[in-house]
């Protein structure tokens, strides 16, 4: 009796060993499948970013120095452009959530075929050139633009409203361009939410509003966070839209990098800006992921 | 006109069919060399140079050229520093050429080949040969402030700053300090001839920056390109703007209510520079000599209102008196203007840009 127990335990131990070894073999095999992707990432991301990192420590005279970073402390414009960049990106993301969430919800509760039709409204602009859309907003929003002309002709306001060449115009343009990046992931995660959950909530006595906030909204958060992150990170590197619609008042990091390159041909100083933006972004993402437990949102674990 | 590197699409075009080149080369006794690569800006500027300079000069000299767009000194320096120079002649602003030369990106011009004996003395340097003269002027909406020269019309930078006498919005340069500080000092009462002396100290630069800060609430737009200057005036988006005279002339041709004055304007020039280690240095130098001749420069005003750098072009041109007198380098206009100091930009550009960016990012 006791010997069989020991035998059984021994077998289990051996089995466990075998299984573990098997698991490791399988993981190695799977990892080898990822080799081409890994090599590609090293070739097109790790090496160039490493090079950028190195360049940022090369001074104007070609020797290693910290001057590029010192300059960022010496002149206030650098700190300000970083603040502006993160501010504009955050506001754009919030605007996208504000507009995109109801839109995605509207699409998600529709019959699939009808939703496909309305989805065109999101996708058509998405397929249009960014430059074209940016200039279209300029035509709409400027002092003698269509919107101001209409508003004044209709007697809604007497003086042209300043809608563009400032932060307002920049945010309008950027939110429009970024909206699909939020709506698409959000829509797909909303589609996966079982309608029965809402029925069950109603069955248990929740009002529609309660059911939405207690059941539907928490389930849609992962899609929303994923979409918001895409929007936020893409906004950080925006160049054209703030340059055209910001009227030179919204100076973002990309603008300053261009100014340095075109006027000073100083790769080191431009690289340093890129490095700081990259590091600041990683720090922010890390902080946010700790705060919201983003692993779920990013890797789709529910 | 100036750098538009965003239009990165490269227009490669062979100007002459090989047969034609060969026959010309034979006729002029030239050995057929590799074609040289000539890089200019896109839009009406490059087109004007094609029409006035490159096509004819190539035909007459038998030098075959490849034309590209997207000229930029930063790209030139990148080519030089990475040791893969493909450009032979590059159009640049005078200030850009000075900075690039200071960085060691440019080849010295061989003035035993390039004849500048009839050039204005200030319009060529060791590293670049002037191609045309333009002016950074103040322009305004003529419906609002009157035609240039009419009583009550703006006359000086002090008027540009005077928002009581000329209420309305302004446009000013974005993200580039070239030609941005001088007007502020003149508006602040500095005599044109003293402007660069004052600017060469940090206090002087700050004086200019503070003067622009004073106007900033009225600056509705900071422009980033010549095309934008024209568009802002055409759409009446702003009432006054700084900018390049040729752009405003083109806007006027398109129906914009815009006028400008050469008074206190900044006289500046564009030029041809050669990247260090240009692949066809000797042939390119000969071509540079060819396009610098008065006979070609004389045709430029027909295509864009920028003046010749070769004085002799005024003698041989067939352009009307009216057109010639509207050019920035016309002897009648030059005394009204302040010639841009390359020394100032070579020494202080970096610091001036940092200070200007600080103001813009406020």
Task: Outline the biggest β-sheet of chain A.
Answer: none
Tell me, what's the shape of chain B? globular
Low-pLDDT segments of chain B: 1-31
- Per CATH, the architecture of the largest domain in chain B is 3-Layer(aba) Sandwich
User: Total domains of chain B, how many?
Assistant: 2
The mean pLDDT of chain A is 89
Q: CATH-wise, what's the superfamily of chain A?
A: MetI-like
Radius of gyration of chain B: 21 Å
Q: Main beta sheet of chain B: strand number and arrangement?
A: 10 strands, mixed
Strand content of chain A: under 5%
Number of helices of chain A: 14
Briefly summarize what is shown.
The complex is a heterodimer of chains A (302) and B (362). Chain A is an all-alpha fold and 302 residues long.
Describe the structure.
The complex is a heterodimer of chains A (302) and B (362). Chain A has one domain: MetI-like (MetI-like fold, Orthogonal Bundle), CATH 1.10.3720. The longest helix of chain A has 33 residues, at 76-108. Helices cover 80% and strands 0% of the residues of chain A. The radius of gyration of chain A is 26 Å and the shape is flat. Chain A has 302 residues and is mostly helical. Chain A has helices spanning 2-33, 35-55, 67-74, 76-108, 112-127, 130-141, 146-153, 167-191, 195-203, 208-236, 240-245, 253-264, 267-292, 295-299. The model of chain A has no long low-confidence stretch (mean pLDDT 89). The two termini of chain A are 45 Å apart. By secondary structure, chain B is an alpha/beta fold. Chain B folds into two domains: 13-133 and 269-334, D-Maltodextrin-Binding Protein, domain 2 (3-Layer(aba) Sandwich), CATH 3.40.190; 135-268 and 337-360, Periplasmic binding protein-like II (D-Maltodextrin-Binding Protein, domain 2, 3-Layer(aba) Sandwich), CATH 3.40.190. In chain B, 40% of the residues lie in helices and 17% in strands. Chain B has helices spanning 18-28, 43-61, 73-81, 94-102, 142-145, 157-161, 182-187, 195-199, 202-215, 226-234, 245-253, 281-291, 294-297, 312-316, 321-325, 342-360; strands spanning 13-14, 36-40, 65-69, 89-93, 128-141, 170-173, 219-223, 240-244, 258-273, 338-339. In chain B, α2 (43-61) links the parallel β2 and β3. In chain B, α9 (202-215) packs across α16 (342-360) and α10 crosses α11. The model of chain B is unreliable at 1-31 (pLDDT under 50). The interface between A and B is medium-sized, with 27 and 34 residues.
